[in-house]
Design goal:
Layout (H helix, E strand, L loop, with lengths): L14 E10 L12 H18 L4 E4 L5 H9 L5 H5 L6 E4 L5 E5 L5 E8 L3 H18 L4 E2 L3 E2 L11 E8 L1 H5 L3 H10 L2 E5 L11 E6 L7 H27 L2 H17 L5 H16 L8 H10 L2 H8 L5 H17 L1
Antiparallel strand pairs: 1-5, 1-8, 2-3, 3-4, 4-5, 6-7, 8-10, 9-10
């Protein structure tokens, strides 16, 4: 069975993926930015010892044992954070299962950053899963915990439950109809954070946004999940309404998405940024039933294997920027024809 990032899930026309994250620290050890190298290694050793007892097929891996392309591919899948990979002055490791829907970063900003992932909108199931894993970890490890504040963290924004619930949403119709900024402003006012997956601006990020909670203190895990889920459902409704509006002008819609499909499938070379925007249009066309030449599963493959790190993993060799642009166009043609 394909890994979660190659699957479509509930409401996956709008919700690309869901993630729940918990931050934990070990009692009696300094926070990472205060730890010596020996203390960092000791933290890793303590956690490594309990991995076999956790189950889920989890494996312990040292970050320094990975090549740069593999590191980049894991960042592109959102399994590892860019900050975790870039800062190599700290002893780091991660724990991951074969399906890659569980990934635990060790010695990032905190000692433990537990993450679970799914395609589509699966916040409730992910919350149940992460609580289950956290309980197993908590039985084997002595967490830093305060009766007054909850779980302690290097960062004040993570104190309490230490939980962040997030979804990545695809909002091309809200962007095209000019309603995106209004909707995102409302979300921000409801105590959530919204950020573009590929940085500021919408022109090169494929209309993808991450929505996550701000509050972790004085609120339970289930309440955090329910709040993010509720707001996600409202965004889904708004995006689908905007898509219905676009569908009323069928010729304009077909012209836009098929122009992008034509460039995507016939270009001799494509940059990463251009591919993201073209894929956004093509996904919209597929989800609305306008483009019938490919399906959702191929969209997911195209989204993954056109990213620089995963493209190089797919081809099986390291390439410079210009060669990647040529190979990206070739891989797109191969996947479309499969």
């Amino acid at each position: 069975m394909a890994n979660w990032y190659l699957q479509n899930g509930k409401d996956s026309d709008v919700v690309i993926s869901s993630r729940i994250r918990l931050v934990r620290n070990l009692n009696g050890y300094k926070y990472i930015n205060k730890c010596s190298k020996e203390e960092q290694k000791k933290i890793l050793e303590i956690i490594k010892e309990i991995v076999p007892s956790l189950g889920y097929g989890l494996k312990y891996m040292k970050l320094k044992d990975l090549d740069d392309v593999t590191k980049l591919s894991l960042v592109e899948k959102h399994l590892l954070s860019p900050e975790f990979v870039i800062n190599d002055s700290i002893e780091k490791a991660f724990i991951i299962n074969p399906e890659e829907n569980i990934c635990i970063m060790l010695n990032e900003d905190d000692h433990i950053k537990l993450q679970v992932f799914s395609s589509g909108q699966e916040l409730e199931n992910l919350t149940n899963l992460i609580i289950e894993i956290d309980e197993k970890l908590g039985e084997a490890l002595d967490y830093a915990y305060s009766e007054k504040f909850g779980y302690l963290s290097n960062s004040p924004i993570n104190i309490g439950t230490g939980m962040k619930a997030s979804v990545i949403v695809h909002l091309p119709a809200l962007s095209l109809t000019g309603n995106l900024s209004k909707v995102l402003r409302v979300v921000n006012n409801l105590g959530m954070s919204v950020k573009g997956i590929y940085g500021e601006g919408t022109q090169n990020q494929g209309d993808l946004y991450q929505i996550l909670n701000n509050q972790t203190l004085g609120i339970t895990e289930k309440e955090i999940m329910a709040n993010v889920k509720s707001i996600t459902e409202k965004i889904i409704e708004q995006e689908r309404t905007a898509r219905n509006f676009l569908g009323k002008n069928q010729i304009e819609l077909e012209d836009k998405v098929y122009r992008s499909f034509g460039i995507l499938t016939h270009a001799a070379k494509l940059s990463s940024d251009e591919t993201k925007k073209l894929l956004s249009d093509v996904k919209l066309g597929v989800d609305l039933g306008v483009i019938k030449e490919i399906d959702d599963s191929k969209i997911r493959k195209l989204e993954l294997y056109t990213k620089s790190g995963n493209l190089q993993k797919y081809i099986g060799k390291t390439m410079d920027g210009y060669e990647r642009e040529i190979k990206r166009a070739e891989v797109i043609k191969q996947i479309v024809k499969e």
